[in-house]
């Protein structure tokens, strides 16, 4: 049996919605050593259940396209800041706004899981697989930031 991983990465987005697929592409580009440190879960839309399923003692990263920052800008925020709507916010079309999903999961869990949001500013969220030029040119940086956050949280 494989050892339990101390980091779970929740990949949000839809590959067929332009820049909304950036987190999927970044996760696919992670090197094997980094992938081995985390459990990568494609959730599409962030749901309360995705956060409730994170085991105690496991850090979580929510990776998604973001609004509230310039297109192509890569951001990392503690989950607490997402709940308080400080800075960027995930952009995927969620049933509930992501800050409310994270806050509700925190209430139901008795506290937020330790973790962060890693996002890239989205410009184009229309139907189609093509990324905007800004996101395309920043995708390697988004992948590197996601990898750095996985390694940071895995190190404790």
Describe this structure in words.
- There is one protein chain.
- The protein has 156 residues and is an alpha/beta fold.
- It is 36% helix and 23% strand.
- It has 6 helices and 6 strands.
- Strands 1, 2, 3, 4, 5 and 6 form a 6-stranded mixed β-sheet that branches.
- α1 packs across α6.
- The two termini are 23 Å apart.
Unreliable runs: none
* SSE pattern, N- to C-terminal: EHHEHEEHEHEH
Number of spatially distinct domains: 1
The number of distinct β-strands equals: 6
Looking at CATH, the homologous superfamily is HybD-like
Give me the CATH architecture, please.
3-Layer(aba) Sandwich
Number of helices: 6
User: Which percent band covers the strand fraction?
Assistant: 15-25%
Can you give the mean pLDDT?
A: 88
Largest sheet, in brief, is: 6 strands, mixed
Approximate helicity band? 25-40%
Structural class: alpha/beta
Shape: globular
Radius of gyration from the alpha-carbon trace, in angstroms: 14 Å
Q: Looking at CATH, which topology would you report?
A: Rossmann fold
